Amino acid sequence: MISKLKSIFVLASLVAATSLSAAELKIGYVQVDKILQEAPQTAESGKKLEREFSPKSQELDKMQKQIRDIEAALDKEGVTLSETDRRNKERDASNLKIEFQRKQRELREDINLRKNEELASLQDRINKAVQTVSETEGYDLVVYGGVAYASKKVDITDKVLKLLGKK
């Protein structure tokens, strides 16, 4: 029984291989890294994020300046200040540093979250562009990264970039 199943499997494999060689496959390759670097949407996304987080970044810059000013005042006036005033300023500086670090961490987390959202949107647009180019030009198979070698004649990256508005 097992030898009969093996024979059927081998026969089916031979039939499949024969039919594949009879019909010519059109294969394409896409360099996703190149698209992510050169697509106009990547630059637009970066500018969008910069505008979105600029106010929070400026707020952090102001806080950092406040910390430096307090520390500079402590260095300059530390000898002349009373022990209580010096301790109060040190506490203020310490509290401001803690608040600064918290806000800085929150900003990094917010930026990373939004970057991931923008990247997901861009990947969706890239996938749609790849699908459009593939269907328009009759490709049977298009592969992304993880390829040891792909010749220029199967590389459709520039066509996808053109569809995305790069070239």
Give structural notes.
- The longest helix has 55 residues, at 83-137.
- 77% of the residues lie in helices and 4% in strands.
- It is built from five helices and two strands.
- The chain has a single domain (2-164), classed as Protein Binding, DinI Protein, Chain A.
- A two-stranded parallel sheet has the order 1-2.
- The protein has helices spanning 2-22, 32-38, 40-77, 83-137, 157-164; strands at 27-29, 141-143.
- It is mainly α and 167 residues long.
- The model is unreliable at 3-20 (pLDDT under 50).
Task: Write a concise keyword list for the protein shown above.
single chain; 167 residues; mainly alpha; Protein Binding, DinI Protein, Chain A; two-stranded parallel ribbon; disordered N terminus
Strand order of the largest sheet: 1-2
Question: What is the CATH class?
Answer: Alpha Beta
Number of helices: 5
Largest sheet: 2 strands, parallel
Under the CATH scheme, the architecture is 2-Layer Sandwich
Helix content: over 70%
The low-pLDDT segments are 3-20
In one word, what is the shape?
rod-shaped
Strand content: under 5%
Give the CATH topology.
Protein Binding, DinI Protein, Chain A
Spell the H/E element sequence: HEHHHEH
Cα-to-Cα separation, first versus last residue: 60 Å
How many extended strands? Answer: 2
Short summary:
With 167 residues, this protein is mostly helical. The protein has a single domain (2-164), classed as Protein Binding, DinI Protein, Chain A (2-Layer Sandwich), CATH 3.30.910.20.
